[in-house]
Structures are given as structure tokens and as C-alpha cells.
Amino acid sequence: MNSEIKLRKAEIEDRDIIWNILQQAIERRRQDGSTQWQQGYPNLDTVESDIAKGFGYVMTVDGEIAVYTALILNDEPAYSTIEGEWLSNGEFVVVHRVAVDEKFAGQGMVKKLFDHIEEFTKSNGIQSVKVDTNFDNIAMLKILEGKGYTYCGEVFLAGGMRKAFEKIII
């Protein structure tokens, strides 16, 4: 059965669902023994700020929110300083705060999300996608590798060093 999967901007009405999904993700990271997202970020203010700024996106499966992410155009101050080198200096989409509802866990949702993000990037005429993750976020590291993202070096973000990746889209 083919589900209808869509990426759309998050609305303020989505806030509580998004926050619930993020809380599940924060707890999963904690259970995995990760330090990522364990210092009170992201929080409900982060979600409200994302939505207000137009950064918040949800991927829906048959209308139900399965994944939350923040997509930010050309603006991640932490990325201006990298221990290493980005592939490009053009316009880029930054992917932050990827979280999957546990109802949809293990279904390849993040891979599908990146397909949609790459489509969004291409349709907006933007050159590349940049993303960072924790050293210990093995699931995300595997996905980025599988999707053809290039490891570019390290950036300092949210109080720690993160692995940074880029993929040229156009």
C-alpha cells in the first residue's frame, strides 16, 4: 500500500504534536547514551521560534505528522567556521532538529525526509544541503553516508563539536 508522503511548513496548530515528537526523540537519544539534546535544547520555545520564522517543516504520512525538521536557508552562523572545508560556497539549506514520531520509527522515514529536502532544495534553485550531527548519532551518520553526503569537517554547535556534511544538489 502506497502512503501519501508530503513535506509542508509547520503551522502553530502543529506545535503540541511536534513538541511531543521532539520529547520522544530526546528520550531516545538519552536511552542510547547520547549527549545530544540532553541540555534542555530543543524545547517548546525552539519549536515556536521555528514555526514563527518559517523554518519548521513536517513530513506527513496520509496527513499524519511523522517527522519534524527545521530547514533554514543560508543561515547558520556556526557553519562559517569549520575545521575542514565545505564543498561549496553557494546557497544552501541547513537541516536541523530531525525527529521521528515513534509510531513511524524504523520505516526509513529520515531517508524519505532527505529525499523531500533534496527535492525542495532543487525546486528552489539552491545549490546544496548542509547538515551536522553528533559523533554518537550512529543512525543519522549512516543515513547521511547512504544518501551520499560528504563529511566536510567539524563545527562547534549547541555547546559541542559536531560532524558536518554537505551534498551538492544542483
From TrEMBL:
It is an enzyme of class 2 (transferase). SUPFAM superfamilies: Acyl-CoA N-acyltransferases (Nat). The keyword Transport does not apply. Its EC number is 2.3.1.-. Residues 5-166 form the N-acetyltransferase domain. It holds the Pfam family Acetyltransf_1. This is GNAT family N-acetyltransferase. It comes from Chryseobacterium camelliae.
